[in-house]
Predict the 3D structure of the following.
Amino acid sequence: MGTIANVGNKGKGIRSDCFVSLELTTGGGLEIDLKSKVQVLYGKSILKQVKEILEFFEIENAKVQIEDTGALPFVIAARMEAVIKKVKETDKEYLFPVLEQNKYATEKDRRRFSRLYLPGNTPMLFVNAGIHCPDGIILDLEDAVAPDKKHEARFIVRNALRNCDFYGAERMVRINQVPKGLEDLRYIIPHNVNLLLVPKCEGADQIDMVNAEIEKVKKENSIDASIWLMPIIESTLGVEKAFEIAGAKNVVAMAVGLEDYTADLGTRRSEEGQESFFARSRVVNACKAHGIQAIDSVYSDVSNMDGLRENVLRSKALGFDGMGCIHPRQIGVINENFGPDAAEIEKARKIVIAFDEATEKGLGVVALGSKMIDPPVVKRAQRTIKMALDMGLLANTWKEDYYEEIR
Amino acid sequence: MKKYDKLVTNALGRVVPTEVNGTPMEPFKGVGKHRPTGRKFAPSIPTSIDYPEDGNKVIGSLAEALEKCGLKDGMTISTHHHLRDGDLISNEVFHEAHKQGVKDLVWLPSASFPCNAELLPYLEDGTINRIEGSMNGPLGKFCSEGKMKGTAVLRSHGGRVQAIQDGEVKIDIAVLVAPTADAFGNAKGTDGPSACGVLGYGVVDHLFAEKVIVVTDNLVDFPCYPMELYGNYVDYVVVVDKIGIPEKIVSGTTRITKSPDRLYIAELTAKMMLATGMLHDGCLMQAGAGGTSLAIGWYAHQILKEKGWKCRLGFGGSTGYMVNMMEEGVMEYILDAQAFDLDAIASIEKNPNHIQYPVFNAYNFHSKGNLTSMMDIMILGATEVDVNFNGNVVTHSDGLLLHGIGGWQNCLHAKNVILPVPLFRDRMPVIKDEVTTITGPGSMVDVVVTERGIAVNPKRTDLIEKIKEAGLPLKTIEELKEEAEAICGVPEKPELDDEIVAVIKWVDGTIIDAVRKVKS
């Protein structure tokens, strides 16, 4: 461990971030050199915050240089802590309180149509991600973070989980591949995460390892909240093991990652996706056999909304329940097309009305016309109605409207 | 050096000087409360017998033309900004003045651009006393730091027309670049290597200046038609090799924003416009050429198409997107004050429904009626908005003067003024307790659309009801401000000196606010 370190981002195109250099010195107190885009508006408060953090970590003598492009307080704190921990051994953590509006847990089977990937060390993308209404926001510590940035990204992700408004989206983190990814967990588990993505998963044993570590960290930090898992199948071996992985504890959804999978297969990803038909079907089948959600791979051409739409419709037809997004503009298309269409809503409306009428009359059997309706069909129809109501596709007065129509 | 001891508090509570650069000025009294009286200003009576009978007013050089116009200390020189950042002539005027040792000039541009940073040495050495007009970039910074000899006067496009007409400003020499002109001085913007489409900003200059010089690099045989500037008002024509750098005059194409956050704001704005009935069959709308405005236009286009509606006219700031709306039949007319891209320029020439419409007609306070007050939809930007809906477009939150007013104030007279703005830019809150400089009174701003919700001016109860009914995210402006501060923190106020470096004029000529020197 040296006495000089740097963290953060600077340069062209960088906004809402900061670059911090720290040098521990043996005397002379704290010398802080701040160059900030928001000097006039927040110069004093940034200096105050930086001093507080240095004091918190018991640093009395140091030279600190900060180049700030408008970083929010949680980012500045993460950068400071990361740079300090590069030059000083300490177990202390400088934590922000968890935002009141972030204090929500998520249900096992909540809607997961769209989940937006954000590179874990690029905080400028975090603050507005939630306004685009993805079902989940993934702070990615794996592929989107360069190896020498993994350390600092953990602090950014941890602080964001506590202090960045997710606007109701499920808070997700993609950890690094197991076993390395296990080290990420203590930065994530105590800090209000809902779901972890486990990349390049090739067996239930990996999920067991993750669960064991989660339990350990939860116990140490007295946490009860459920933390769900979403393994990602990204290899030929993973596809073969899909069934056992889908059945592992706390797994609520399983995703397929086709970039790595097609490379492993020795082929290339095509627009139509014939090469991955087997893998996708296998994953969907394994998920459905265990009653969990199947999540499709991302569509990487962010400017092609028609291509995305077709891709989503194919995906939905295969049985997938959702898809990853790499750009906020994809969220709307994904949500809209995974959502129930007019014919599905109409059918669900009739089934639910028939069920309600049957229940009211005390009948044990639900029939629609001459057709008997099985309980799972009713359940699915009820879910469709709920989804349509949530998505604003159906008016709250839909039942009254129905009777009005048939009158 | 510019300590104003005679200060007064105006109707918006801002402390402003009663005299600027030796001229008495009125404080802002409220919207529609000030009426200049008397007769319009007029330049000296010219006589046609003093001009060449063959109509040939071409003269050897700009230097010679300026000399013949009697260029001397203290004169007011005006230019228009249609060549934008590609203008090679506005600077040339002052290079020449500097060579001739002339001092204390007042520059009255309709807008300045980064290319005009070249004039900084002349502001320093006293060739130019001050700028009266819009100021951008380095010139604004120079002024904010208190380095300009005189006090800057910022006027809207319409305010410039008002001041020239009622004689508050007297133009001694107007130097008007023209992409195409004839030897008599008739000029147009649609043709030539430096085509800019429209020359409307120069109209008032050529009508009211004592002397008028037209500078062109594309001299055509008489008549240059259809002319926007008339040779009858022109004294001299100067032919040069090049008046502008085409790629800096217009963008090849103007582009819709790619920022997902800005697109989100644009989509929300369009939904709000539909839900409130602002967007309807036969509506009149105006939006700028900024990325978010273009996106709103695009969303409006889709809605109009889907509904089978037509927008009666779009006023602009024309762009290829607007042209596309006209060509696809969802917009009947374009009234054009300035063309922003090549598609727009081409359209003026080929489409009779694409009409050149100078600000002299659209934004003129001394005109018998005003186009902007007829507009149903007005999309504008702002650097800051406060909880009273007052807007600032001229200074940044750090107090630096960095933008011109443009047509912003004039456009506030529309039926529905919408400010689609992000709640904060990086860590700079846009919605604040108090704006740094009031450029427009909050009573004229109807809706503020941010990515975190829509705030409606409480006086617009009609809009509030409709937005609520449509289930769009309605918030109070205070709630939005608090949300910005919860994310960014409460900003400190810039430390400003007492010295006034610039005044901001309202459309009627009164002073709405003053800009103080920043502490370095």
Summary: The radius of gyration of chain A is 24 Å. Residues 128 and 165 of chain A are 9 Å apart (CA to CA). Chain A touches chain B at residues 15-16, 37-45, 69-73, 124, 127-128, 131-132, 165, 327-329, 392 (CB under 8 Å).
